[in-house]
Task: inverse folding
């Protein structure tokens, strides 16, 4: 299993740890348009900040700019709600055109209550409104949809950065999700390229040589959460450079962060 | 409501954002014993690393060292399981003495399946084994329980650091929780002192002057998650200094991060 790595010795255990971690917001990136070369904009922004991308760097990029570039922004005026969407919209007190978009993005409704529509997306993410979102978009009636394949989006950015400046930088695409039981939203990784998103400690031992059991850390989600602290809630900082985290390189995918349904007690 | 702050102008919105954030692991802290002066050990560790605590610094401290200091470590040999614990332990394939401890810490069982015992603690946290944990403890048969009042623990550390070196440093106590739907564990804040754990964007506008709705970020959980990237899964780095995050000062509590049961669709 690719996401399970053996960390046998103390030296190897230092992978996934860092005495110091730095996160730098890439400011000065202009408003993104469909078809823009995001990788070039990221390299330019880094250069303006006198940062040269280095091996082992991580770039966390918000879903919103990726959706904009990939044309995943819809004008609600172009959406005709179905009778089902009209009915559900009335129940949820939502715009029926938005409900139409959400149902189009959803493969399964997980909960529909208290004005919330929690759905599973084609990617397997479980989130509010199947990832359909109206914030930070130009135009009164715009809504953004999640990228069709955020892992591929991340991989394309990574490949283009490598072509532009030679550095192999791991890419995470982040989005803001709610969670049961705990209030407030946190950022998670919905697209991954160049790192293994789960740090697996099974088979290693703790400080007292006891085996660590059932310990897999969702480091990609923690990296996305950390980046949100620098990004804030507007898109003026759409990307954050994380330097100093010794991740495990590899062809990780966001689907590695999805709990298999047979181990999910909250379907 | 204390956790709701108005962020009216662009300048104020810069609160909760930072162009650069640094996380530094406090290494060299010795194995913790009951009654140790943790604040003094943290100040000593920072001094050894040539770090002087500054206003606006945040210290994230692991639950495990706080539990050790507060004597919340139990020897399983001293635990006599009840008949109920024996029965449940057989069903879950767990040590019945551990089940006895878990039931003592729990106020409500949320799920009991697949060898997992997911419970609500006296603090209102919903987590595996009601926070009872066997890793990184001396002795073959030790288990740690969550601090009785992690907010008070955090406040005591904060007050003692202020007394020792004059700096008012916000304190978060972190623990590692699982979550539905997504695989892997992430660190969250179970104790808070000196900052408001939710960043509330309601009443503010996005880049296109649209009101931001339903947007509250669990920054304390994101800070705890970020710190985990430096800590790793042993206790050799039991505390991380976070510098550069412009948090909202105030008497925040970990309970602010708990979703009220009437808004919880997954009880």
Result:
């Amino acid at each position: 299993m690719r996401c399970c790595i053996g960390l046998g010795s103390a030296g190897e255990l230092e992978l996934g740890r860092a005495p110091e971690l730095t996160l730098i917001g890439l400011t000065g990136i202009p408003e993104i348009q469909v078809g823009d070369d995001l990788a070039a904009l990221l390299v330019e922004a880094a250069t303006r900040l006198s940062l040269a991308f280095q091996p082992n760097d991580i770039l966390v990029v918000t879903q919103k700019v990726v959706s904009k570039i990939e044309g995943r922004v819809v004008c609600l005026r172009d959406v005709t709600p179905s009778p089902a969407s009209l009915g559900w919209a009335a129940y949820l007190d939502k715009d029926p055109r938005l409900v139409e978009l959400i149902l189009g993005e959803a493969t399964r409704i997980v909960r529909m209550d208290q004005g919330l529509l929690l759905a599973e997306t084609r990617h397997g993410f479980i989130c509010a409104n199947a990832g359909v979102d109206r914030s930070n978009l130009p135009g009164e009636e715009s809504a953004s949809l999640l990228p069709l394949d955020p892992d591929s989006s991340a991989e394309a950015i990574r490949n283009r950065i490598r072509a532009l400046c030679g550095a192999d930088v791991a890419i995470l695409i982040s989005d803001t999700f709610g969670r049961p039981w705990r209030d407030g939203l946190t950022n998670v990784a919905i697209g991954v390229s160049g790192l293994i998103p789960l740090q697996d400690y099974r088979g290693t031992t703790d400080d007292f040589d006891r085996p660590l059991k059932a310990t897999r850390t969702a480091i990609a989600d923690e990296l996305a959460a950390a980046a949100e602290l620098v990004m804030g809630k507007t898109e003026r900082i759409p990307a954050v450079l994380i330097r100093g985290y010794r991740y495990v390189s590899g062809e990780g995918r966001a689907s590695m962060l999805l709990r298999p349904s047979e181990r999910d007690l909250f379907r």
Observations:
- The CA atoms of residues 41 and 62 of chain A lie 14 Å apart.
- Chain A touches chain B through 76 residues (CB under 8 Å).
- Confidence is low (pLDDT under 50) at residues 1-18 of chain A.
